Every structure is written in C-alpha cells, then in structure tokens.
Amino acid sequence: MAQFNYKARSRTGGMVQGVLDVPDKANALSQVEKMGLFPVSIDPVGGRGKGGRSGGPALPAGLSKVFSGRRKPKIQEIATFTRQLANLLKSGMPLTVALNSMTHLGSKGIPSSVSMELKQEVMEGRSLSAAMGKQSHIFTPMYVNMVQAGEQSGALQDVLRRLADHFERFAEVQSKFKSAMVYPILVLCVAFLIIVVFMKFMMPKFMLMFQGLNVELPFATQFLMDFTEKFNQYWWVLLGIFACMLIVFFRFKATERGRRFIAHWSMNVPVLGKIICLNLYGQFARTLGTLLRNGVPVLSALKITEQVISNVILKEAISKTREDVTDGKTIAQPLARSGVFPKLMIDLLKIGEDTGDVPGSLENLADTYESELSNSLRVLTTLIEPILLIGIAGVVGFIAYSILTAMMAVTNAMQQR
After folding, report:
1. Whose C-alpha in 10, 185, 232, 398 is 20 to 30 A from the C-alpha of 128?
2. How do strand 15-22 and strand 2-9 relate by DSSP bridges?
3. Hey, where are the domains in the chain?
4. Where do the H-state alpha helices sit in 127-202?
5. Residues 115, 99: Cα–Cα separation, whole Å
6. pLDDT > 90: what percent of the chain?
7. Kindly report the CA angle at 296 between 284 and 327, in degrees rounded to 5?
8. pLDDT for the residue 67
C-alpha cells in the first residue's frame, strides 16, 4: 500500500484534505469520488511512486515502461478507445461522466488510470485536448490538435468519430502489410532451422559412414561434406560477422547520411519500393486530409504530418512545403517542386485547391493509394509463395541428390569388389 495526500471540494464548495492508504493513484481517485467529493489534486506522500517504493536500482527505460503500464498503445487500441468515447458522448453523456464510464469499460492497451486522470483534469477546468496533451505517451500531437479543433468548433463527438475511422484505416493497412510479410518470413525461418539441424546433427553421421568406406564420392556430395565441416567448425565466426553487420547497420542508420540513404533506397528498391511508396503516400494523404477536414490550420497540419511520416526524404519535402505555404503559396506547387510526390497527387491537389476542397482531394488520394497498396500486397504474396517453395525445394533437392548419389557410388563400389 502507498499513501496519497488528496485535496478535494465538497458539494458545498468547501476544501477537504486528507491521506489515503491505497495501492495507486487510480485507486486514490476512485476512493475520493466514493466519498462524494470532487478531486482537486492527488499526490504521493514523500514523493514516492506507485506502490510507495523509493530508492533502489532503477529499471532500464524499456522495462520501466512495461512494468509501469506506460507503453505506447497500438493503433487499433487507440481507435477502440476513441470509438468508445465517441459513442458515450453520442448517447448524451456529459464529458466527465463519459470519461468516468471509460474507466470501467476498459480499453486494451490504455490503462483505466488514463481516463481517470483525464476526468480529473477536465473537472479542474482544463479542456480535454489540454488534458490529453499531458498524456503524450498515449495521445499524439495529431490526436490532440484534432480534439482541440473539435472543441473549438463544438463538434467534439464528430471529430472523435472521424479520428476512430482514421486510426482504424491505418490499423487495417498495417495489418495487411504485416500479414503479407508473416508467411515468407516464417517459411524462411523454418527452412533455415531445418538446414542448420541437418548440417549440425545428421550430416556428420553420413560423413563418418562415407569416409570409412574409402570410396570416391560425387562432386555434389564432397562439396556438401566440405561445407558442413566448415560450418560446424566456424559457425561462431558466421554468427559474429552477422552481429557485426547488424551493429554497423544500426550505427549507419543512426547517422543523417544513413537515414537519407536508407530512405532513398527503400523507395527505389525493386518490387518492395513500390509498396513502400504507396504506403507513404497514403499515410501522407490520409493524415493531412483528416487534419484539414477537422479544422486544423494548414501550417499546423503540415507540421503534424511531417512528424507522422517516418521517411526522411518525405519529411524534408513536407518541411520545405510548409515554409513555402508560409509565404502564401499553395500546397501543390511546392510539393511538385520537391520531385518526391507523384504527378497524380499533385494534379488532384491542384483540382482540390481550385474547387476549394483540398481535404476531399486528399481523402480520395488516400483511398486510391490504400486500394492500390492492398492489390500490390496481394500480388507480392502470390509471387513470393512459389519463389520460396522453388528455392527451398532446390536446397532440399540438392541435399537429397548429394546423399543418394553417394549411396549409389558406395553400392557400385561394393558390387565391383
């Protein structure tokens, strides 16, 4: 148990203070509300954290996030949380009552304490967007800005619904991309494991048998035996080289030159480059269109979109576009000069600017790129499956051929004797 100092107001407006022995801050907040009070502040006694512990060795940052429940939620988890809150507001609940209900609904990946803290902030007179801004590990700048725009326009419920739609689309695209990659990766891992087990445990027994017979072996069998012998002797060297390559790669990736090289290479690599570009263009169009549709100013929308996009080259193009828009230019012109975005996007943006419906053009672009991405992923998966099967069959066939030809050579030698 831990101790928490609380300050709260009674129904008559008087200030009440006290100390509670509870497991954590969320339970302290719940206890104060059960007493019929309105919480103002809840702080741990003596600055102790959750569970009342102080001192002791600190956990690494990654583990601390896991054990403290402050991990970054998945996109689908954010979408579910947003959809639930939008539905509660749609039913006519006041915001504080809806947030209180959210603590009992339980959204996977987002602790109930988050909803409690949001409720407390709102009850103290802060806006929902300001309260969410303090939960940066949960709510992104895009999320906070859209909620703020919804509050200012009086359409918070509609904005939350659109946010849920936005994140659900992103989660769907992400799921399709991962699903397309799972099968080939799994097949490659299983094939690699089978080959390693064969060379480490089974092939040495064949080698002992063939070497004791003093028979001239076929070239394929001799090559396989030599390769197996070298692998068993120097596997640790191969492992070390692989580890060094990973270290060099991640160090290179951490540099500015490395980020630019990887970003450029990923967009131009055969087959996969097209899929990566479609994903980036769809993400850019969907994010910017959603922000503009919900009333976020164009400069803020471009800045948030720049933060969302992971590719360095696209980031620079968006940053340059934001500078040009500040000078009074349209979005389409600076995007066209960057040479990064496709002509289809530029043309549709120009049409949107001419008709006064840039968000609509961006949303149409996002739908187009996401549809094309789904088709490309389907084609990629269809192509990868036979290629992998042919490759694995070739390796297994070579091993079987090496063993069978050796056994035939041994049989012929014994018959001649």
Report:
1. 10
2. antiparallel
3. 2-52, 75-139, 162-417
4. 128-133, 141-153, 156-197
5. 6
6. 10
7. 80
8. 45
Contacts for 10 with CB less than 8 Å, ≥ 6 apart: 16, 36, 37, 38
Tokens standing for 283?
């993400």
Q: Is 42 within 8 Å of 121 (Cβ atoms)?
A: no
**What confidence tier does 107 reach under pLDDT thresholds 50, 70, 90?**
low
Question: Whole-structure pTM over 0.70, yes or no?
Answer: no
131 contacts 102 by C-beta, under 8 angstroms: no
Residue with the bigger pLDDT between 82 and 8: it is 82
Cβ-contact 4, 44 below 8 angstroms? yes
Question: Half-sphere exposure of 331 toward its Cβ, with a 13 Å CA cutoff?
Answer: 29
Please say whether the beta carbons of 156 and 128 come within 8 A.
yes
- Provide the 10 A C-beta neighbour count for residue 3: 14
Banded pLDDT at 328 (limits 50, 70, 90) = low
- What pLDDT is attached to residue 248? 93
Pair 116, 122: CB distance under 8 Å: no
- Quote the tokens at residue 121: 């902030």
Question: 324-352 as b/e, with b when 16 or more CB fall inside 10 Å?
Answer: bbeeeebbbebbbebebbeeebbebbbeb
CB-CB contact of 121 with 134 (8 Å) = yes
Q: Residue 279, Cβ neighbours under 10 Å: how many? A: 21
CATH level 3 topology of 162-417? Receptor-associated Protein (1.20.81)
Counts for the chain of helices (H) and strands (E), in that order: 17, 3
For residue 244 the two structure tokens come to 């060094």
| Sign of the CA dihedral running 28, 31, 35, 36 | positive
Residues 6 or more apart whose Cβ sits within 8 Å of residue 295: 149, 150, 152, 153
